[in-house]
Structure formats: C-alpha cells, structure tokens
Amino acid sequence: xxxxxxxxxxxxxxxxxxxxxxxxxxxxxxxxxxxxxDNVEEYGISMEHFSPISVQNMILVDYISKIETSxxxxxxxxxxxxxxxxVIVYSILYKQFDRQIFNALIQCDCVRRYNRxxxxxxxxxxxxxxxxxxRNILSFKDNVIQQSRQTILEPIWKSIMxxxxxxxxxxxxxxxxxxxxxxxxxxxxxxxxxxxxKAEGFHQILSAIRTALAEYMDKSKxxxxxxxxxxxxxxxxxxxxxxxxxxxxxxxxxxADTLIYDPEIRSKIVDELRRKHQLVFLSWKLGGxxxxxxxxxxxxxxxxxxxxxxxxxxxxxxxxxSADLNKRSLIDFYRQMPEGEEGTDLGLYYLSYLDDACKKxxxxxxxxxxxxxxxxxTVINLKFSF
Length: 386
Prior knowledge:
Distance between the termini: 19 Å
Order of helices and strands: EHEEHEHHHHHHHHHHEEHEHHEE
Shape: elongated
Radius of gyration: 24 Å
Oligomer: single chain
C-alpha cells in the first residue's frame, strides 16, 4: 500500500490552490514564489522530508494543485518516487469515491422520501452543514457508525476471503483497502448513512456503497502501474542525459552505457549534470478543485528532460507550440528510440500493461510526447481521468 515508508525524502515544490494558500497564510506560514519546469511562476510551499499521509490529507481537502520534483538522477530515489506517485493516485481515487457515494446517496428512495416530508432540511447537492456541526452530531453516533461499517463490509470481506485467485497477501491488501476507502468518506456522507441506517430502503444505500467499493478497488490497481511507468520514463530521461554527458567527458568512447553503469564514473556524471543544471523534472497536476466541474478526477503527469539553455530556447512550452515541435504518442516515442537503448522493450511492456489496466476499469488514459529538435528536449505527458 501507499504508506510503506513513514517519511519520504524528496525535494518537492507544492503549488497550492486558493483554499490551500488561504489556509497557510491564515496559519502565518509564508508562501514561496518559485518557477516551475514549464517556466510558469507559482506560489506554494517546498518540502524536503514529509509524510505521505500529510500530502494525502492536503490533496483530500483540495489544498494542492500541482507537485513538482527535479533531480539529475532518480534511480537513487526510486522507492520514494513510486510511493509518492501512488499516494497521489490513491488520493484522487478516494476523492472520486467520496463524490460518487454522495451523488448515489442523494438519489436513494429513503433520502428522497425524507426530502419530500422535510422541505426545510433538504439533503441534496446544495446541502452545506459545517464540519464542526457534523462532528458534533456524529460524536453521539459512534455505535451506529461501527454497525453500519460492519454491515457494509461483511459480505465484501467474505467474498474477498473466498476468492481462490487471490494470494493471502492480496487478500490482506484488499481487506485493508476497503477500510481505507470507507475511512476517507467525508462527514456528510457518514451523516446520511447513519441517519438512514435501518430505515426502510436502507438496502439501496448499502447496495450503492458496495457497488462503488468494488469499482474503486478495481480502479486502485492502476496506481501501481502508473508508478512503475513514471519511474521507467524518469530513468529513460536521466539515462539520455547521462549518455550525453559521458560522450562529452569521455570523448572517443564508443559505448557510453559501460560508463553510466560504472558507479564511480556515474557519480562524476551526476555531479556534472547537477553543475550544468541539466535535470529531469517530474510533475503531477491534479484535477480542478470544487470549482472546476468535470475536471476533479483528472491527473496530468509531465516529465521534462530539461537543459539550462532551454529557458531561452522556449519562453513557455505550452504557449509556443512551434513548427520545431515533434508531437507523437508515447508508443511512437519508444519505437523510435535508438537501437540498443536501455529499457525500450520494458517501456513498451509497461505501457501496454498500463493501457490495458486503464481500459478494464474505465480510466481514460492518453500519452503524448513533444520533442523540440533544436534542443534535444523531451516533454512527456500522461493524462488520466478517473
């Protein structure tokens, strides 16, 4: 699962939403102004050591709009990058699940019946009960919350335990995951569940939650594939940079690969990349907050393979899609890599797995590569809609 390591060590630039910025400012925290890989200036906070759960909580309350990290090489941070990627994907899934549950609950007959007889206290998309008030109401319903959780989960747990295709480890992961999705439901959803627990028609609420749980447990399998794909792409970018530097530092050597896999030479190459500020940038742009309808479940992962002089070459990648630009799919990008480049087959293999996994669980996925021929620059985009 995503919280294997309690603290992750990665240099992050975290761009805040308006809600996030207001929260930090009201808590007397100064925001930083920084320039991102696409040359846009943003306000936010930076982190070097952080707990995955703190990032997750900020995403769940719509405080984060983008996360970016950059390094000359990612291989030494492999696990951290994959863990962070999974945390981000799970957070989006938790939010989508929560939204879907609310939309399903307000359509249930028992809620509609209640609305007809209580027009002054409607439970619908406009309902806005402050969290403090909800916490107070729910604090007296601990017993009902536990009972309803048990009622929701029991048949799901039984079917997980009875499934002969799952290994014991997988069973544990799925059991834990069902709880995690329920734990991330917001207070208003629990208010509705406990209000109608054992009321006539509650079976409809049960059915809606169980159906969504099954759907999102399936969708969550995609998180693993995305993290592997992101890591694979980052490694490809860093190896391209390393080969380039190796050829400059050790002229006349035919096979740069022998150099970049020699630990001593590799560390010299990494130092040179750092000195030249030739870094790989990786960013996760999260779907719009409460304001941007229809975009909430989107995630855009971008990799920039960037050199210092690129700043002058392109003022902004997004605004100037010049004729110098070669735009194609990620599959073409892999197929057109020079012969013998490390990991080409592996990349295609991961990509087809990711593509299949997304199709199976109704997650939209597209990948594009922009290449700027004048500067050897590569910008890879992975777009997901959960």
